[in-house]
Amino acid sequence: MSSTTSSFPERIELSGEGLVLRDWTEADLAAMPELFDHPDIAYWTPIVSPFDEAAGRARLDRDRQLRAEGTAILLAITVDGGAPLGEVMLRRAPEGTELGYAVGPAHRGQGLAVRAVRVMAAYAFDELGVKQVILELEAENSASVAVAVKAGFTLLDVPLIRGEEKGRPFALQTWGLDRP
């Protein structure tokens, strides 16, 4: 990351849309496997699988390192600042300011991802001054495409991002949301 990229605040808590997005804590480690150790998350995301408490510890440590470097922030999605229901991520990348999310299987169908993406996008626009946020999604991931559409993103006319993760090829579409 260039030396002109500032680090993120040491602590972040964002509220809006009936959610509180907050830093992950040591107390959340036991809840992380229930949220992230699932076939859908293993298939559609780069999150490690199987996901156990040791994977949670590694993720928490990596989150803190990326934040200090000014590269990324990962926040727990909660309704009241308490129990985590999923995660929303903001990453500064060469392609742009990217958002990502994962919601635990037991908490899906409540609009958590859509609302968390909107709150994180507002943070990126208002606090970081970015002009656009992006989502990189596989077209076949209908749940994530629905999140993009409901959150107001549009499919951008840019080349697919192709690669391989966990032994399977992928092709990501780029969706964008411009600063209001």
Automatic annotation (TrEMBL):
Q: Where is the N-acetyltransferase domain?
A: 19-171
InterPro entries associated with the record: Acyl_CoA_acyltransferase, GNAT_dom, N-acetyltransferase
Q: Which CDD domains match?
A: NAT_SF
Pfam families with a match to the protein in the record: Acetyltransf_3
Query: Could you tell me which PANTHER family the record lists for this protein?
Result: GNAT FAMILY, PUTATIVE (AFU_ORTHOLOGUE AFUA_3G00765)-RELATED-RELATED (PTHR43792), N-ACETYLTRANSFERASE DOMAIN-CONTAINING PROTEIN (PTHR43792:SF1)
**Name the UniProt record assigns to this protein:** GNAT family N-acetyltransferase
Q: Which organism is it from?
A: Streptomyces lannensis
